[in-house]
Design a protein that fits this description.
Elements (H helix, E strand, L loop, with lengths): L3 E3 L3 H11 L5 H19 L5 E7 L4 E7 L4 E7 L6 H7 L4 E2 L1 E6 L6 E7 L8 E5 L2 E2 L3 H12 L4 E9 L1 H10 L4 E7 L2 E2 L5 E2 L5 H6 L3
Parallel strand pairs: 1-11, 4-5, 4-6, 4-8, 8-10, 9-10, 10-11
Antiparallel strand pairs: 2-3, 6-7, 12-13
The structure holds 1-O-pyrophosphono-5-O-phosphono-alpha-D-ribofuranose and uracil.
Length: about 210
């Protein structure tokens, strides 16, 4: 079974509290999503393999460590996942970026695909799927399904807020995918929104409501 890591770092929790507030305006909301993503990225990449290299400093030769192993890819689930990409790319500038477009049907709450464009060599990369919200898990499961159909074997899921229903659904469908959250909330409401959550992440990032 995959691991679920809730990143309870004080900086993440502080920023998340402001993010949740209904009074936080769009500009600040977008900045906070980005900042939290950077902090989460730092933790979610903690186990990436390293290799030793020799570096000539102005003083002597030093044995240093650099990233080894697979190249990385960041795959946001559109739309809201886009808000998590920039800070991650700042930290991992060599990562390629794929896009998977899904929206939840308002009646059925099931994900509907409208776009998918992935790096050609995605199957050889360590993939980070990013989306602020993990609610029913339908969108995450569909995105991971796409990636696996394209041959991806190493996938990590990063969500800012999850809930037990969504986490269980992803773990049942994809037990090999580790999940990183900033918070595990209480439950889903009758509209499949996370409680207490932060409302509609896409609308709040892009100011569409
Ligand atoms: C939101 C969110 C996730 C999905 C989570 O996107 O960003 O992608 O819902 O819900 P689930 O776990 O029940 O699938 P939404 O479908 O509202 O689209 P948007 O990002 O374009 O706003
Ligand atoms: N999508 C969101 O943006 N928020 C939720 O609470 C659930 C799905």
């Amino acid at each position: 079974m995959s691991t679920v890591t809730v990143l309870d770092h004080p900086l993440i929790q502080h920023k998340l509290a402001i993010l949740r507030s209904k009074n936080t305006p769009v500009k600040e909301f977008r900045e906070l999503v980005s900042e939290i993503s950077g902090l989460m990225c730092y933790e979610a990449t903690r186990n990436l393999p390293l290799k030793e290299v020799q570096v000539e400093t102005p003083i002597c030769t030093a044995t240093c460590r650099v990233l080894a192993g697979k190249k990385l890819a960041i795959v946001p689930i559109l739309r809201a996942g886009l808000g998590m990409v920039d800070k991650m790319v700042d930290l991992i500038p060599s990562a390629k970026i794929g896009h998977i477009g899904l929206y939840r049907d308002p009646e059925t709450h099931l994900p509907v695909e409208y776009y998918c464009k992935l790096p050609e060599d995605i199957e050889n990369r360590q993939v980070f799927v990013v989306d602020p919200m993990l609610a029913t898990g339908g969108s995450a499961i569909a995105a991971i399904d796409f990636l696996k159909k394209r041959g991806c074997k190493h996938i990590i899921m990063m969500n800012i807020i999850g809930c037990p229903e969504g986490v269980k659904a992803v773990q049942d469908a994809h037990p090999d995918v580790d999940i990183y959250l900033a918070a595990m909330d209480e439950k889903l409401n009758d509209h499949a929104y996370i409680v207490p959550g932060l409302g509609d992440a896409g609308d709040r990032i892009f100011g569409t409501k």
